[in-house]
TrEMBL record:
SUPFAM superfamilies: Obg GTP-binding protein C-terminal domain, Obg GTP-binding protein N-terminal domain, P-loop containing nucleoside triphosphate hydrolases. Monomer. The lineage of its organism: Bacteria, Thermotogati, Deinococcota, Deinococci, Deinococcales. Residues 342-430 form the OCT domain. GTP binds at residues 166-173, 191-195, 214-217, 280-283, 308-310. The keyword Ribosomal protein does not apply. Its EC number is 3.6.5.-. Mg(2+) binds at residues 173, 193. This is GTPase Obg. It comes from Deinococcus hopiensis KR-140. One of its GO terms (cellular component) is cytoplasm.
């Protein structure tokens, strides 16, 4: 399976079912009371993190996801069934972004973690809800609301315990193969690793283990998108422990500086991660040179462990050190999960705009029109669009209670002015005396 760590999808939650406009019918009962049931809730789109999947490639065949609509309400107070939720299973470490706003809407760092990324619509209320002392037989019901639609970008950031970071041909793949069960492609040229490779490293007694990721080689300018840099730098942010793999035969001090500069340019907090240095290929130089380089690298304040992945030298000491340095998984997850942007579900404030339209033929004066924006009034009208005439009294009382008429009066509205809410128009009358 090809490795894929970014995928764009479209999701559409289900709409809520409409409420029922129904009256009880029974033998010997000419006029029964209203008994319309409520519509069901629309299904939501939910991300679920699972283990054993290391790529988003399995989702490529389906880029659009739709949840089930809620069912309509029925007579005899029967409520419509809720629509089924749609689950999208993704690897642990997946972050979801709203492609239009760029906001983080989900960050899944634990197996089994779930997050709603598109909310199902609400079911409409049946006409049985709208009875009152003066309204014994309401001939209207409420429509369900639409489900949320979104364009979403999924980004996978591998949840590996230890990440190997280094320039091409520093020996990361060889080190991973020597320490773990992984069998990465190994050759003596840069960019052998085109995808992150995971391996499992066990303690000597076999009672402890951690996952290690071979992050593809960084080149200078990776943080600016050169080479494969940006595609793979994101995976480093998910590792609990970084291991800088340096080639002792090159200029390891300068390489470490450059590596840290690239990490700093991408995400400065990466330099706060627990880290160690694996000084590789020591079989190629004298021990005096290795010791001198160790002393120079010690100025960075990180543990330096000389190793030879090819000859197996220093690997037990490196393995033991990594087990000791590795931060606790649960504590790390609590402090490194991305903060999700909480959606602002508040309604827009009410605003009134006045205009005068040209008088109709034969009319003596222009038409005075008040445009109503915000306050949630258009959404409320829309839910009764099938029964507006029958629901007029209910809506008029509702708007009065919610302060629309008082706001119009304060703004200077006169009897007979036209009130415009979206595509809906009605005549204003002063009911505030």
């Amino acid at each position: 399976m090809a490795f894929r760590d970014v995928l764009d999808i479209e999701v559409a939650a289900g709409s809520g079912g409409d409420g029922s406009m129904s009256f009880h019918r029974a033998k010997y009962m000419e006029k029964g009371g209203p008994d319309g049931g409520h519509g069901g809730r629309g299904g939501s789109i939910i991300l679920r993190a699972i283990e054993g999947v290391e790529s988003l490639e399995r989702l490529v065949g389906q880029r659009k996801f739709k949840a089930e609509n809620g069912r309509y309400g029925e007579g005899r107070l029967r409520q419509g069934a809720d629509g089924q939720d749609t689950y999208i299973e993704v690897p642990v470490g997946t972050t979801a972004f709203d492609r239009d706003s760029g906001k983080v809407i989900a960050d899944l760092v634990r197996v089994g973690q779930e997050k709603v990324i598109a909310q199902g619509g609400y079911g409409g209320r049946g006409n049985s809800t709208f009875t009152s002392s003066t309204r014994q037989a309401p001939r209207f019901a409420e429509l369900g609301t639409p489900g949320q639609k979104r364009r979403v970008r999924l980004e996978l950031r591998l949840i590996a315990d230890v990440g190997l970071v280094g320039y091409p041909n520093a020996g990361k793949s060889s080190l991973l193969a020597a320490l773990s069960r992984a069998n990465p492609a190994i050759a003596d040229y840069p960019f052998t690793t085109l995808s992150p490779i995971l391996g499992v490293v066990e303690s000597e007694d076999g009672e402890q283990r951690f996952t290690m990721a071979d992050i593809p080689g960084i080149i200078e300018g990776a943080s600016e998108g050169k080479g494969l840099g940006l595609e793979f730098l994101r995976h480093i942010s998910r590792t609990r422990l970084l291991v800088y793999v340096l080639d002792v035969t090159r200029d390891p001090v300068e390489e470490l500086r450059q590596l840290q500069n690239e990490l700093r340019a991408y995400d400065a907090t990466l330099l706060d991660s627990v880290a160690a240095i694996a000084l590789n290929k020591t079989e190629l130089v004298d021990t005096d040179i290795t010791a001198m380089v160790e002393d120079e690298l010690a100025t960075f304040g990180l543990p330096v462990l000389p190793v030879s992945a090819k000859e197996g030298l220093g690997l037990p000491e490196l393995r033991d050190a990594l087990f000791q340095l590795l931060p606790d998984r649960e504590l790390w997850a609590q402090t490194h999960a991305l903060e999700e942007d909480v959606e602002d579900v508040r309604e827009e404030p009410l605003t009134l705009t006045f205009r005068e339209d040209a008088p109709e033929r034969g009319a003596p004066v222009p038409e005075r029109v008040w445009e109503v924006h915000g306050g949630g009034f258009e959404a409320r009208l829309t839910r009764f669009s099938r029964h507006l005439e029958d629901a007029a009294e209910y809506l008029s009382n509702l708007f009065k209670r919610q302060g629309l008429y008082a706001a119009l009066k304060r703004a200077g509205a006169r009897e007979g002015d036209t009130v415009e809410i979206g595509t809906f128009r009605f005549e204003y009358f002063n009911d505030e005396e």
